Amino acid sequence: MEKKVKQQTKAVHAGDRKREGRYVPVSTPIHTAASFFYESMEKLDRVFGREEPGFSYARYDNPTNAALEELCAALESGHGALACSSGMAAVHIALLTALADRRKSVVAADALYGATVNLLMNVLEPLGVAVRFVDICDLPAAKAAIAEAKPGCVLMETASNPLLRVGEIERVAELATAVGAALLVDNTFATPLLVRPIELGAHLVVHSLTKFLAGHGDALGGVVVSDAAHYDTLRALSRTFGPVLGPFESYLAMRGIKTFAVRVERQCANACRVASWLKDQPEVGRVYFPGDPAHPDAAAIRRQFPEGLYGGIVSFELANAGRNEVFRFMNALKLVVPATSLGDVHSMMLYPAMSSHREISPKHRERMGISDGLVRLSVGIEAVEDIIHDLGQALENSGVAGASA
Asked: Which terminus of the chain has fewer Cβ atoms in its 10 Å neighbourhood, N or C?
């Protein structure tokens, strides 16, 4: 019986060490060639026609990208993958893949990353794609919306950005499949160490490679992982409009992924400690964290997340705070980096109303539950005592305590 390789091992070995001539490099080289040729035109013709494996033009494929794609597909239990220039490029082409031969309609979770909402409302809707939002964690409501709309695609996040709601992927996949829709899951927050949506019935999975997978804040990229049914369409669309990742970024992302499991395990442990500490601070009005036993989606989290691994994101509201109080608090941080991203080795804090959900109207943000006092903390791999000390001194020195009194 063949032993099943664990995620930590796949992250280190998958995709790498392909033979190049008479030697095997221990890590995938950076291939910068824009085009490739062979010993005969006949062979090049077969490669162009995809009758024979190989590389012809970098918009179609690239050896460095192919290694990264093999790695990501292995981690997500997918048939194949496409490395893209950004996470949003990945979301875009995944949606187009899902809708290619289906009704041009999307049922989306009402809690999503702001840029994804903008893509749906300001790009796809004007092009004739019907978009409907629903509370994906309310299964009866989701079932009714999907049955009525009969969409071509259902879109959700494993853990929503930034309030960390967790829907039941397997149940939503059943609802989508029943009406012939593809289920697309953004798995950026959870990573394939915690949840692998394709194993739960999803058809397409996307990641911002920039975040936990690459993990060092030095490579912008995205990836789509596909099941067998959607892979050819995904690659055909990519060959046409080319949202491909550059080979340098592919190399950096692949190098980062080798340690992602170790990093994410540490970030999960740190996040548990930080969330617990925040709940005891009088300046903090509310903490959002999947490891909280009182989380509204606790049952779904228990089924889908490994025990003790709840992700590295903690969102929290400063009590009675608005923009000015949040700015003072974030300006007082000394170790936590107040920057727009997440998943890096260093702890980072973001103000959703200013950045990730800036383009969403205040009323829409309010409906999404994103208050003006909400911040999102991506917990890093530093000593957790140092992270907590920095948060504590920022709460004290920013005068937020006085604002909440």
From this structure: N
Cβ 42 vs Cβ 73: under 8 Å: no
The amino acid that residue 359 corresponds to is: E
Told to judge if 59 belongs to the known catalytic residues of this protein, a careful annotator would answer yes
pLDDT value at residue 19: 81
Q: Contact 108/121 with Cβ under 8 angstroms?
A: no
pTM over 0.90: yes
Bridge partner list, 155:
108, 184
> Is 186 designated active site?
yes
Q: ∠ CA 45-78-12 to the nearest 5 degrees?
A: 95
Query: What one-character-per-residue DSSP string does 229-264 give?
Result: HHHHHHHHHHHHH--BPPHHHHHHHHHHHTTHHHHH
The rounded Cα 38 to chain-centroid distance in angstroms is 38
* Catalytic residue flag (residue 38): no
d(CA 120, CA 318): 30
CA neighbor of 224 nearest in space, from 205, 241, 249, 243 = 205
CA distance 336 to 344: 11
Q: Across all residues in the chain, what is the average pLDDT?
A: 94
> What average pLDDT score do residues 212-237 get?
97
- What residues are paired with 23 via a beta bridge? 20
pLDDT tens for 324-343 read: 999 999 999 999 999 989 99
Q: What is the pLDDT of residues 147-178, one digit of tens each?
A: 999 999 999 999 999 999 999 999 999 999 99
Catalytic residue among 43, 50, 59, 286: 59
Confidence of residue 356 (pLDDT cuts 50, 70, 90): low
Q: Sketch out the chain's domains with CATH numbers.
A: 7-30+62-257 (3.40.640.10), 260-404 (3.90.1150.10)
* Beta carbons within 10 angstroms of residue 271's beta carbon: 27
Q: Which residue of the set 211, 263, 365, 376 is catalytic? A: 211
**357 vs 272 pLDDT, higher one:** 272
Tell me 123's DSSP state.
Answer: I
Q: How far apart are CA 38 and CA 360, in angstroms?
A: 51
Note if 279 is an active site residue: no
Q: What is the CA radius of gyration of the chain?
A: 22
